[in-house]
Amino acid sequence: MKKYLLGALGIAALFTVSCKKDMIENDVQKPFIPGVSVDTLVGNISSNVTLTRTTYLKGVVLVDSLVTLTVNPGVTIIGSPGGQNPDLINLSNNKGTLVIRRGAKLIANGTASQPIVWTSAQPAGSRNFGDWGGVVILGKATTVTATGGAEGLYEAFRLAPNTVPYTYGSTTPVDNDNSGSMKYNRIEFAGGVVLEANREVNGLTLCGVGSGTTIDFVEVSNSGDDAFEFFGGRVNCKHLLAWNTKDDDYDFDEGYVGNLQFIIAYRGDLADNSGSAFIESDNNPSGAVIAGKVRTRATIANATFVGPDALTVRPGVTGTFDAGIWFRRNSRINFANSVAYCGALPTAIGLSPTTRDDIDALPSATADRSYIRYNLFQSSSVNPVVWDNDETNAIVDGTFLAQPDNVVINELGGVTQQNTAWANLAAMGINAADLTLLPTGPARTGGLSLTFLDPFFVSTTQRGAVIDADKWTIAPGSWISIANN
Question: How far apart are CA 363 and CA 375, in angstroms?
Fold first, then answer.
């Protein structure tokens, strides 16, 4: 591998256990089953439960409203592989998936040395993306569906016999809704099909989740669908890492408005069957602008995105890739202080016409325009910036170049559409081993503090996800893993 992220950190040890002897088939009326060496969650969790040791997540597990599921530091949760075909009657026979319903809470606070690990039932060396489902959190914050509705049904469970538990948003939204807290969690080899083909569960899905929820220090590794997907909501997140995702690393939909700082996406190859990106930002599935409804707008500061240096296609997929950063269908975005090393990816930035035409000079909490400033981009593509859905139709009007604080090579997106690639991340001032800042380089300065937008943001003018004051990728402990099987 090239540019191994966090190579010196090692891989957090996982328990090697046998789960089969503790499984109780069709026992959906007993949500928590103590075992000899492994406990089991199955069915509906209707009273508060605390997980204190390795736990088997058997099929689709629902945490009911007003109930809290607590996971202690150092606990490993193993997702069941499910049967060859989805079971639409007994959901406990499917791939392990945890669903936190509206009004419920997940308190899963690990530490750097005792992370909470959600993983595959397969032994190390035989694990793969999509081995199990994932973690889904449903909240009551503002959501705008394709029809303008305030409530949505999470798409992966539209065939469930009872769809009510998978509803998110609210006709009386609570934007500071609190669905719990996740700190120092690693979700790996998830993103599998649970009930329906081509509607996989993501590594971590946040649907209508409110700003009272804490998401900090979370890695999603080798997800079979998106790493992190946001369907509406107002949740804010720090210290997120997407590692070798099959589809998008960060996907924003349905009127999501929130803040993210210190986030990483790292890709060693090309994956996905339908097109993927570091960021995919969508207004809603129909693409329509709904009068009186907020558009999707993520405000992202201090991201580091790393693409592969060669167009190696992951086995079993077609290797389609839309763009490093793909702003689609009437969405808006604020993107600052970030480093996007696209390597050999065919397109660095994709803008829909409506997004392209609404790039503003300064970020604003009220203006309905996008803000893309103070970033470092790299691309060796002959069409580094494209618009609409035609990835060969390069922008030639200079809209993107009108913002001079986006440092580009040889007029990224200019009339000639030609670039001289940075030789490596070091040329951008980033240490390839752990993504910290090098002693010299353009990432060390030149950013803009976004505290004037929201006190959520840490004040810094350094660029990239790992700044001098917060070297979180090399913190004590080994909660981050770069294992690929």
Answer: 14
pLDDT of residue 421: 62
Domain that holds residue 27: 7-474
248: Cα separation from own chain's centroid? 7
Q: 31-63: b or e for each residue (b if 16 or more CB lie within 10 Å)?
A: bbbebeebbbbbbbbeeebebeebbbbbbbbbb
Q: Note whether residue 485 is domain-resident.
A: no
Tell me if 480 is assigned to some domain.
no
127-141, 158-172, 205-219, 464-478: least confident range: 464-478
Tens of pLDDT, residues 13-60: 333 333 333 333 334 457 889 988 999 999 999 999 999 999 999 999
How many angstroms separate the CA atoms of 244 and 223, rounded? 7
Domain membership flag for residue 393: yes
Write down the mean pLDDT value for the chain: 83
Q: Which whole number is the average pLDDT over 175-194? A: 97
Indicate the number of domains in the chain. Answer: 1
Determine, yes or no, domain membership for 377.
yes
C-alpha dihedral (317, 318, 321, 322), degrees to nearest 10: -120
Residues contacting 55, CB < 8 A, separation 6+ = 38, 39, 40, 41, 75, 76, 77, 78
